[in-house]
Amino acid sequence: MTIGTSDATTQLAAIAPPPVRVPPIARAEYAARIDRARALVAAAGAGALLVNAGASLRYFTGVPWGMTERLVAMLLPVSGEPVLICPRFERGSLEADLTIAADLRFWEEDEDPVALVAEAARGLGPIAVDPLMPFAWAEKLRRTATTLVDGAPAIDGCRMVKSAAEIACLGEAKVMTLEVQARAAAILRPGIAASEVIRFIDAAHHAIGGGGSFFCAVQFGRATAFPHGLPGDQRLREDELVLIDTGCRVHGYHSDITRTYAFGKVGQEVRDLWDVEHEAQAAAFAAAGPGVPCEAADAAARVVLERAGLGPDYRLPGLPHRTGHGIGLSIHEPANLVRGDITPMAAGMCFSNEPMIVVPDAFGIRLEDHFHVTDDGAAWFTRPQPSIDRPFG
């Protein structure tokens, strides 16, 4: 797809969802996740795992609800049926979404849901608590004389390593977003507003079957120097750098792809640092593999940057943040490609790879693709950007 050679109407009309879609996660896989969590909880010396509404509850039960002020949670005993605690008026919705057998316990608006948790947890011993459980609820549970321990080892121990079905969902989402990125580049023109590009990308993500954009950042020129952009609605000018970062979801699994490219002519410093960024991304990928500590990929990228006179560490000009993050049902999840994260990579782990270069108040370059760890190395979900002038080959 060539930059700036088309229009939104033409590009949207040309989009079609994949002819064969990836299926949702099967019920048997949810059952296997429950069994795995029980084993990890038992190994940690706890009697049950308490999982809050959000991505982890979806992972174990299929219930795709976000956290609100009303407590929705699963108490998973090491032995015995899972207990789902939920407002009574949500019963029908819960039963429609639930993919596992569970003991459903409901609370009315004038009742205390934490008391239901405490009752279900009585006699089970220490409770491993979801690290994203709000403090107020966890503290109230602790005051019932229940011993609470960190549930992250059990939850992350399950979620970090993706199954073949999860990798397929992630792969479809990323292929969708890469096509949307290419079509967005085609509609660019001098004077186009960032908001118009954002609206197009959302419509394109709908048209291709991704349910719209989960997020979208469109940055031009100087704004590319700020990793998460600047306020206001920019308009594109000739001979500026374009940075677009966006993603969608397939069965809850995320894409998150960034492209940085020239709209017209850009200076030699920009071109030289684009090449350095490209090399750093490749170095992080080459470092990945089973048994490799996550921080090694970050270190490999920084070697390239420091050799080019950038940094060191987080100093600018250079890379101001981690090289990458885990991705799955959450767009950012453990483990991370960052110094200090010594989690050994394992086949099935999935990461972003985005060692952004920032030149303060001037420009920034971020190339972001994702890979999954294989038995003998790593595999890209999407082909990295080949050049600053040909972002999609």
From TrEMBL:
Pfam families, A to Z: Creatinase_N, Peptidase_M24
UniProt-listed GO biological process terms: proteolysis
Domain named Peptidase M24: residues:
171-375
**Per the record's keyword annotation, is Metal-binding included, yes or no?**
yes
Top-rank taxon, per record: Bacteria
Domain Creatinase N-terminal: residue ranges: 33-161
The similarity annotation says: Belongs to the peptidase M24B family.
Q: What name is this protein filed under?
A: Xaa-Pro dipeptidase
Q: Which organism is it from?
A: Sphingomonas rubra
Q: What is the lineage of its organism?
A: Bacteria, Pseudomonadati, Pseudomonadota, Alphaproteobacteria, Sphingomonadales
